[in-house]
Amino acid sequence: MLKPNFMSLDKPISIALSNNEIIEITISPLTHGTLHEITPLEAKEHGEATVQLEEGRIYEYLITQGYQLSEPKVVYPSKLEKSLGQIKPNNYVGTLTIPIINLRDNKQCGELQLEVRSEKIDYRQDYQQMLEEIAEKCTELLMQPNAPISQYFTINFNEDARTLYQRFAFIKGILDTDEFNDAIYKVLLSPVTSWEEVEVEKDIRGVKRIDGKLLRQIINGPNRIPLPSTHPLSSKLGSVPQKVKINHKRETVDTPENRFIKYALSYFLYFCGNFANKLTVKSKHRDEVLALEEKLNHWLSNTLFKEVSSLHTLPLNSPILQRKEGYREIFRTWLMFDLAAKLIWHGGDDVYEGGKKDVAMLYEYWVFFKLTDAIGDAFKIKTANINSLIEPTPDGLGLKLKRGKECIPLLGTFEHAARKFNIRFSYNRTFSGKQDYPSAGSWTSPFRPDYTLSVWPQGITEERAEQEASMVHIQFDAKYKRELHKIFEPDGDLEEEKRQQSQGTYKKADLLKMHAYRDAIRRTAGAYVLYPGDVIEEKRRFHEILPGLGAFAIKPSNSKGDSNALTLFLNNIVEHFLNRASQRERMALKEYNIHQFPNKNNLNELLPEAYGSNRSLIPDEVFILIGYYKNKDHLDWIIKEGLYNTRKGSSPVNSNEAGAKYLLLYNGRTKQANLFFKLKDKGPRIYSAEELVKLNYPSKPTQKFYLVFEIDPMLEQEFEKRIWDIKKLSSHFPRQRGLPFSVSLTDLMEVLIRS
């Protein structure tokens, strides 16, 4: 783990300005122990400023008279004296460059560089790892069959240094890895060798085997020496050459694979050298480039490469490059390098433009790829929507991943034997504000969550799914914070929270933002924070996984282990969507039925309160059975037996009639009705004519069967002594005289006769 070697800063900072003056700036932290300094050597090695602040802290500063610091949202000069003020980096993490303004001409004459450190002590390692993984992911996208790379782009070194740097940062993320370093050392320690035949001169006295080629040299070779007269061949040859050329096998490292390794390292070095030429001598990036150049030169100076010749053809089909350890990794890195060098990522400006190293922004981009993979796996959408991420540009390939710009990396269909869903995963999707129901978006202010997962049934459009409340959004936000300050802690100090709010350091802002997403953006069922911490929190509003809020820990140093919780959560989300009997889906239907039309009813009458056994007494959903009685004997029997019978008729009984909660009786001889009864909840039963006769029914039944409702004697007092004008319900009367019908309590109360 890369940890800074902090020293306390107890002296003013001296800065040389462009007008050759030297000024001093004194910085004092409000919280003791939060202002540090590292050595210039360490700062150079890691590309940081020597003066180190901590995120979320407040610092006071004093600058030489006649000058002031100027950086909106970070520097707050005093209203009384411009040379005094406060520095509040808030959640910013990285290199902070603050302009120094000469008050005499109101022009910039220098700059103060400060490093705002994350609370996480391993943020250097996180930065390097995240950049490496983003570079690797992007090059994997470019290697897909449908990637837009049919045209070959060469690196244009006439680009401005900023564009080249964002390319260099990608490439440095590939080369500055332990994996690549290990691969190089494996090649150097155990290089591939081959046997080659070379022609060497050898004293003829040492020759043991003679072939045709050697025989011709013996007969015709130069530099001959006479044979002794005693030699068997002296009479025929007279002389032989002193030395002859023979073929000799030797082991060599000059193989096509080693030539490729040398070529790849030289290619990397060439890129760094050209980029370095674009930088000024004082450029902060120059140190990074020179450090990488030094490493590449060190490797190329190894004795192995002194014996290796130049590469003439690329051995791309070599089994050694594709399989052997060391060679395999370098070959893959070269492929990534070649593509990454062509990739232009304007979103990278958010991460390292102007020399800054914004780890929080890089974390947001890194989480984007992690979340894309996790959602793709959960919903079985394997292919990324490459066209939404990579596009050809006049000078290379553009990665369209940038804060504030929407892109859709996943768009497809989740198919299961039980259900099929459309899936859309968006980055930076904007939900416009002040949208009237049932339009999509926010009913208050506009919102733009970092990531949005949208799920709706297959067979309908997004627009229709939004209109019918069949759409479900799940929002995610990335926060590069070590801890979320226990935002779900049940016993928080409310007075302390108010104090934090007044100071602008409210620690539960992340929780409130998730609530804002959940409550303001229509059809949002869940909102979750992703952060590099240790605690996983998942809160359910009711019983099911949705609706809910939560926080999931996912950090570069343990992304695989942390992803398990996120993967489990997403798998549970999938199971939740497959459940056709979910409470959330029932609630969505209720919402749709209730709000699809504006409420035109206005009921201000005395009614029983909806609690306890009457909790379901909602006037629009409580139905009254309007029943006919034939005469006084029939009415007396109804009251005595606590039963109301009615003919079934030719029309079916609907659910409102069968589920009626009250009964209002009328006999047709008067416009008014005041015989109001409560019905028991068990619903009607079917009685035969014989059963009614046994109950002393006052007349001879004319039907074989009757629907019979049982009266509950416990009528609420609010309904006592009420009279209704029954004739005003004439539009509800059935065609067959004497058959019952139902109206809602709201409709009934509209015909109430008020005394």
TrEMBL record:
Its source organism is Chitinophaga rupis
Residues forming the DUF2357 domain are: 85-334
Show the InterPro entries listed in the entry.
DUF2357, PDDEXK_7
What protein name applies here? DUF2357 domain-containing protein
Pfam families associated with the record:
DUF2357, PDDEXK_7
